[in-house]
Design brief:
This protein is α+β, with helices and mostly antiparallel strands. Helices cover 52% and strands 19% of the residues. The chain has a 5-stranded antiparallel beta sheet. Strands 4-5-6 form a 3-stranded antiparallel beta sheet, with no helix packed on it. The longest helix is centred in the middle third of the chain and has 57 residues, at 61-117.
Length: 250
Amino acid sequence: MSDENPEEATGPTARERLVRALLHPGRGQVTAAVLLAVLGTAGVTQVRIAGTDDDLSGLRQADLIQALNGLQAASQRNDQDIRDLQKTRDSLRDNNARTSTALKQAKAELGALGILAGTLPATGQGIRITVKVPDSGISLNYLLDGIEELRDAGAEAMEINDKVRVVAQTSFEAADGGVDIDGQVLTSPFVIDAIGDPDGLTAALRFPGGFVDDLALDEGTVSIKKLDKVKITVLRKAVEPRYAESTPPR
């Protein structure tokens, strides 16, 4: 006589097999589920497309023409918007380019004006003139003539004895033992640094009857040295005009 329990000998019930299949699906079951999902998605898409076609197929010819005209009008508006945006973009590019060019030009002009006014330092090729006269007795007229000859020859910046920046408003006066230049009394030797074309500046001082010949009359000597780099560092303070006002361009 067997001691086995009849319930234990019996295999799993249908409910247990169903639960096991749900919790541990086999490869075939997973494949079938994926196929069903794909078929379901395709079916829904087909229904939507069919519904759209049905909507269009139900319209009259006049309605279809009107719908087509509406689409064409919308397309034209989009094309116009695109052209407007491209035009705005190009305009901004042009404005930026013009603004950048104007700023560069303004900076260049400001730098040039600063050098001419003596408010900015300057560096460039030029000459160094050393003038020696007995007891600093240089004729004021000779000195002024020499400065004017340098200006006429294209000198862009000048300073004397590393103390005075020579500009259009620089004053020259005779003084005991020297020359009063912008309130500073300078004595011999007078060292004039000038930026410009070295050959042109030298020729302007050495032409017959010019600065070098004039100084010889005062028993003075003049030496001129051409330099590839002349540094002018003396600065003047900018002076506000008392009477003149800037006039905006028309």
